[in-house]
UniProtKB/TrEMBL annotation:
The lineage of its organism: Bacteria, Pseudomonadati, Bacteroidota, Bacteroidia, Marinilabiliales. The chain crosses the membrane at residues 21-41. This is Biopolymer transporter ExbD. GO terms for cellular component: plasma membrane. It comes from Ancylomarina salipaludis. Belongs to the ExbD/TolR family.
Length: 130
């Protein structure tokens, strides 16, 4: 009597489910990375080892050519205070993040600090980590 086993082991492996998972992960990371809106201005920030946990409402940037920006919108200094007042009027405790290129003289920084002081805004000076 010749008895043969009918259960044969198939050595093939299907990669289709693995590729589906990889493509889903790829799509997920592509979508979530587009939701992040970094500061698009190229600034060399001064270095600091201290960081704050405050959450600023808006940011003001000064580039190396002394151009002022609210978020990424170019704004002349003469209109900076008015635009900030309109943006921050509804907020109870407004906080501004100040991004300044390290080649900008302190005089330009003090101009924005005076606007914040006159309107009772909190001001955070943005730095890069050491």
């Amino acid at each position: 009597m010749a008895l043969k086993s009918r259960n044969k082991v198939n050595a093939n492996f299907s990669m289709s489910s693995m590729t589906d998972i990889v493509f889903l992960l790829l799509i997920f990371f592509m979508v979530t990375s587009t939701l992040i809106a970094p500061n698009a201005l190229k600034l060399l920030l001064p270095k600091s080892s201290n960081q704050t946990a405050a959450n600023p409402i808006t940011s003001v940037s000064i580039d190396k050519h002394y151009n002022f920006y609210i978020e990424t919108t170019p704004t002349p200094f003469s209109k900076l205070e008015g635009k900030l007042q309109r943006m921050l009027a509804k907020h109870e405790d407004p906080t501004i993040s100040l991004h300044v290129d390290k080649s900008v003289p302190m005089e330009q920084v003090v101009k924005v600090m005076n606007i914040a002081k006159n309107n009772k805004y909190k001001l955070i000076l943005a730095t890069s980590a050491k």
